[in-house]
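Technical annex, item 7. During the second reporting period the consortium partners agreed on a shared format for inverse folding records so that results from different sites could be compared directly. Each record opens with the tokenized structure and is followed by the designed sequence. A conforming record, contributed by the partner at site C, is shown below for reference.
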């Protein structure tokens, strides 16, 4: 049994529980509605879009009804609040896709990014999961983030706060912790870890993960740890750097590893 299955088995005990597939299908359908180029046929007409859009809201309400005893308020108001955020989510994702295409020389255009890039997909699942997380809806946000993790190798906790024009290049092995704060125009390469200095249950309510300010680039294999660690804006963090303390703005941080060829 994988993590996603355990998540529901552990916390939900009634027979009438939302299946993992329901949650993931709802989010994927929403993403395809917002970006029809992801679909071979797409939703090209307003009437069809409106019908499908309302169908996904109903799908979310049905999912929430199965965990209504664990919700902070009634299912429909929560679903309405989430869907009120959909235009903002779409705007942010469009900016993310444009930034990825602009920063990756291998990307032919924004459509290719939206249709094929795992980094875009992971960011999309995060942005939906984050809004559900802010509404204090349990389980469902983690199902989305862990589904993206399973499919892309990119692990973004739904509680993380990530600004606009976010770029993930390649992406496999990226880990972004729950209390991480990331500014605008930040670019991460594969195997970057934005984590905690230690893992302890009594730190659950504390800020454990770093703050990454605007216009920062973090190259592959870098590890940045600690809730008090701040990477100042316009900074470049080189590959395989290990940081547990803050870096001022406009810095360049690199390893001094020596390579000998004989």
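Designed sequence (site C submission):
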């Amino acid at each position: 049994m994988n993590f996603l299955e355990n998540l529901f088995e552990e916390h939900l005990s009634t027979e009438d529980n939302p299946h993992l597939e329901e949650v993931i299908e709802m989010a994927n359908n929403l993403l395809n509605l917002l970006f029809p180029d992801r679909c071979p046929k797409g939703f090209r007409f307003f009437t069809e879009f409106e019908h499908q859009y309302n169908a996904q809201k109903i799908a979310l309400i049905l999912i929430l009804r199965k965990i209504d005893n664990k919700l902070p308020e009634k299912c429909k108001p929560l679903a309405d609040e989430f869907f009120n955020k959909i235009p903002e989510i779409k705007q942010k994702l469009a900016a993310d896709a444009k930034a990825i295409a602009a920063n990756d020389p291998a990307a032919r255009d924004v459509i290719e990014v939206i249709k094929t890039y795992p980094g875009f997909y992971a960011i999309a699942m995060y942005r939906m999961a984050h809004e559900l997380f802010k509404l204090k809806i349990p389980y469902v946000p983690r199902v989305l983030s862990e589904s993206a993790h399973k499919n892309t190798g990119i692990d973004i906790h739904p509680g993380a706060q990530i600004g606009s024009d976010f770029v993930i290049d390649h992406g496999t092995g990226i880990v972004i912790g729950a209390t991480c704060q990331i500014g605008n125009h930040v670019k991460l390469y594969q195997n970057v870890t934005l984590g905690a200095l230690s893992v302890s249950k009594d730190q659950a309510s504390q800020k454990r993960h770093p703050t990454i300010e605007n216009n920062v680039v973090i190259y592959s294999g870098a590890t940045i740890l600690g809730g008090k660690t701040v990477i100042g804006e316009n900074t470049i963090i080189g590959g395989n750097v290990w940081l547990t303390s803050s870096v001022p703005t406009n810095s360049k941080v690199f390893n001094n590893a020596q390579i000998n060829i004989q």
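The chain has eight helices and 14 strands. The first strand starts at residue 155 and ends at 156. All partners now use this format for quarterly exchanges.
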